[in-house]
């Protein structure tokens, strides 16, 4: 049975955030709010957690997982960024964008696109997510909480708790959450390609 954490959207309780991070470090799978919508997250090396996310969302091996990072310093450990791309991404973060970039050796091979060797990364603009990442001290390996055969992601913590109570370990509910997935920008060739239009304005990358 999942644990339910009611967290203040502007001043997240440090004790609650610490308890969630302990669960993540203990190979837990959590549902958490972001500036785009709820996501499922596990620690980077959690192979079982990745399989659980795939099972919940009915994903295949080609799915691009996202490394949700606290800041640029953290993001730079996991992807290669040219100066021109750095400026473009810096201007748009934190925000509701996911960027697909060539991965460094810090990223486990099973998370890479099989041909391009890329990975998705993002820096969210959400107080609770940022508190979680600061406490964890590393990126959260994440996927949008979009259920199979559904067009809209779930946006309410209680709804997620009811639907996934026995499939995940925790739900963080801060009441304040986006309702659209991120806008996805592919920078694998250094020239931006808008792959998906979502919550972030695609115009700067068109």
TrEMBL record:
The leader peptide range reads none
- InterPro entries xref list: DHBP_synth_RibB-like_a/b_dom (IPR017945), Sua5-like_dom (IPR006070), SUA5_domain (IPR052532)
Which species is this record about?
A: Kribbella sancticallisti
Q: Which domain of life is it from?
A: Bacteria
PROSITE patterns xrefs: YRDC
Q: What is this protein called?
A: L-threonylcarbamoyladenylate synthase
PANTHER family noted in UniProt: DHBP SYNTHASE RIBB-LIKE ALPHA/BETA DOMAIN-CONTAINING PROTEIN, THREONYLCARBAMOYL-AMP SYNTHASE
Q: What SUPFAM superfamilies does this protein's entry cite?
A: YrdC/RibB
């Amino acid at each position: 049975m999942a644990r339910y954490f009611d967290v203040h959207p502007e001043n997240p309780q440090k004790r609650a955030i610490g308890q969630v991070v302990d669960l993540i470090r203990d190979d837990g799978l959590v549902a958490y709010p972001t500036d785009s919508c709820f996501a499922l997250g596990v620690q980077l090396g959690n192979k079982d957690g990745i399989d659980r996310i795939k099972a919940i969302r009915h994903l295949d091996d080609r799915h691009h997982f996202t490394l949700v990072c606290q800041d640029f310093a953290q993001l730079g450990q996991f992807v290669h960024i040219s100066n021109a791309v750095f400026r473009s991404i810096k201007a748009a973060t934190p925000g509701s964008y996911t960027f697909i970039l060539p991965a460094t050796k810090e990223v486990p091979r099973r998370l890479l696109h099989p041909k391009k060797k890329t990975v998705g990364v993002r820096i969210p603009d959400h107080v609770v997510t940022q508190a979680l990442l600061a406490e964890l001290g590393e990126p959260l390996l994440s996927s949008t909480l979009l259920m199979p055969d559904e067009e809209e992601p779930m946006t309410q913590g209680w709804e997620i708790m009811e639907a996934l109570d026995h499939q995940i370990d925790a739900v963080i509910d801060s009441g304040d959450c986006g309702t659209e997935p991120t806008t996805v920008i592919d920078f694998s060739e250094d020239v931006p390609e808008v792959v998906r239009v979502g919550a972030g304005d695609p115009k700067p990358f068109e």
